[in-house]
Amino acid sequence: MVTGLKDFVCRIPKAELHLHLEGTITPETLIVLSQRHDAEPLTLAQAQALYAYTDFTGFLMAFKAVTERLRTADDYELITYRMLEALAAQGVVHAEAYVAVGVVYYWGHSEFEPLFAGMERARVRAEKDFGITLYWIFDAVRHFGVEAAARVFRKAAEMKREHASIVGIGIGGDERKGPAEMFGDLYREAREAGLRLTVHAGEAVGPESIWGALNIGAERLGHALTAIHDPELLHVLAERQIPLEICITSNLKTGCCTKLEDHPVRQYFDAGLMVTLNSDDPTMFGSDLEGEYLLAHSEFGFTEEHLRELAANSIEASFLPPERKIALLHQIERSV
């Protein structure tokens, strides 16, 4: 039954909407990067140890250790291609990946365009090789402050004029140090520039963070784990059909959800919220999108029909043009 279900999940065309490029780097790929840039390259054991942490702060530190070894266009081309290859093998037909442009600037890169050229080479090559499409979401680090976020968002608006693959912006990082309301003016500016708006919200803090994200115009919400504690918020999310980028394993591994049985994913689904499943930082959390679908079935009782609905949600919640959405939704119907 497990093998049959796995085949079923892989066969369904689906989108991955909450995925950090830097969080797809495997220990084996990290070794390649280390060999390129470290005076004393990491061993496999050392690389694997970097992915061991016990809480959200530890995860942020692991993310930092990985990103500091991303320095050239070739590095970004390598990790982008390997990310898309792994996604395609799971039946993913479209991805919208966050790239930590704010972290790139933090590490002292004065220009992002040369690095982006490597990402684009991989995107084009992977679309040709695997048939998978990819949009980029430029992610700012909220605890770096408003000025740093402005640099990221304005770069996205500038580069979008030449690169249709740049679709939107987001803010990640420590919610406790960067409430969404701080970025309200920047989000209005981004929307006027034609960028789509996402916000990580309600991952490590309460429902107030999600309200803040809605107030600055978020079209999709990353995590929204704590919405379960606010009945009025649940009603608003269901009524507006705001897509939720749910990341079950991620929430457990960062300690934001302490027990699997306490995760609200099934409650959200049953309440009519627009739920999508996503892997967040798969290599750091030891899961992938296929694994999230299987977990939803085994631990939360999602049937094959429910999984098909989740896949359809992922297409509908994407920033793809309507005609592509319709074509992919027909593919989902044919696949089952």
Q: Got a strand count? A: 8
The shape, in one word, is globular
CATH fold assignment: TIM Barrel
State the domain count: 1
**CATH architecture group name:** Alpha-Beta Barrel
**Global Rg:** 19 Å
Helical content (DSSP H or I, runs of 4+): 40-55%
Main β-sheet, spatial strand arrangement: 1-2-3-4-5-6-7-8
Determine the CATH superfamily: Metal-dependent hydrolases
Distance between the termini: 16 Å
Question: Can you identify the CATH class?
Answer: Alpha Beta
Mean pLDDT, all residues: 95
The string of secondary-structure elements, in order, is: HEHHHHEHHEHEHEHEHEHHEHHHH
**Biggest pleated sheet:** 8 strands, parallel
Q: In percent terms, what proportion of residues is strand?
A: 5-15%
Q: What structural category arises from helix and sheet content?
A: alpha/beta
Question: What brief labels describe this structure?
Answer:
single chain; 336 residues; alpha/beta; TIM Barrel; 53% helix; globular
Fold and architecture overview:
This protein has an 8-stranded parallel beta sheet. Helix 5 packs parallel to helix 7 and helix 16 runs antiparallel to helix 17. The protein is α/β, with parallel strands linked by helices. The chain contains 17 helices and 8 strands.
Write the layout of secondary structure elements.
Blueprint: H1 2-11, E1 14-20, H2 27-37, H3 44-49, H4 56-67, H5 73-88, E2 92-99, H6 101-106, H7 113-130, E3 133-141, H8 146-160, E4 166-172, H9 184-192, E5 196-201, H10 207-215, E6 220-223, H11 231-240, E7 244-246, H12 248-253, H13 265-270, E8 275-277, H14 282-285, H15 289-300, H16 304-316, H17 322-335
Parallel strand pairs: 1-2, 2-3, 3-4, 4-5, 5-6, 6-7, 7-8
Helix pairs in contact: 5-7, 16-17
